[in-house]
Amino acid sequence: GGRGAGVPGCAGATIPPEVSFRRRTRQREAILAALRDAPGPLSAARIREAAEREAPGLGRATVYRALRTLREEGLVSVVELPGEEPLYESSGRGEHHHFRCRGCGSILDLPGALLRVPAGTLLPGGHRVEECSLLLSGSCGECLSREGRTRGPGG
Fold first, then answer.
1. How many CB atoms lie within 10 A of CB 55?
2. d(CA 81, CA 54)
3. Angle, to 10 degrees, between the axis of helix 60-72 and the axis of helix 26-37?
4. φ and ψ of 63, to 5 deg
5. Are 98 and 135 a contacting pair, CB within 8 Å?
6. Each residue of 43-68: pLDDT tens digit?
7. Within a 10 A sphere around the Cβ of 42, how many other Cβ atoms?
8. How would residue 10 be classed by pLDDT, with cut points 50, 70 and 90?
9. Which residue, among 33, 34, 57, 36, has the nearest Cα to 47 in the 3D structure?
10. DSSP-assigned beta bridge partners for residue 99
11. What is the pTM of this model?
12. What integer pLDDT is reported at residue 74 of this predicted model?
């Protein structure tokens, strides 16, 4: 009870008791499905493009309103990366970081945490950590395959 059971893309996510499931519309379900099926966070434009398959005629304003509501409900998280517009992903994906391909520009989830610095950690100089996020960049597997360079250094 009260957990994200049965809600697409929200395995293990805590859903606030005040969330009204009557407000689940076809558009919101399509947006959640697009985020759940994506290999990484998406821009609002990419969400609209993917969700339109399930909800034809989905408008830009509708996508932004739905994303705002889904964020308030704790079902969608914003991913802010340097030099990028805000990106969105379904909540409940667990601790993970992101990888940006310099070739094709795709942003992918990296499961698990490569680096863990818990919130509240005090750093030298008196700084306190509130959040830890890591963005790696390089060439994705598809770009490397196209270039014929799939081996890493020394391999």
1. 21
2. 28
3. 80
4. -60, -50
5. yes
6. 999 999 999 999 999 999 999 999 99
7. 22
8. very low
9. 34
10. 108, 136
11. 0.70
12. 92
Tokens matching residue 127: 């700084």
3-state secondary structure of 93: coil
With beta carbons less than 8 A apart as the criterion, state whether 52 and 58 touch. Answer: yes
Amino acid at 85: E
How far does CA 113 lie from the centroid of its chain? 15
At 134, which amino acid appears? Answer: L
Q: How far apart are CA 13 and CA 30, in angstroms?
A: 19
pLDDT of residue 21: 44
Dihedral angle sign, alpha carbons of residues 82, 92, 38, 151: positive
Amino acid of residue 63: V
Q: 111: which 2 tokens?
A: 């499961």
Give which of 101, 100, 103 is closest to 147, Cα–Cα: 103
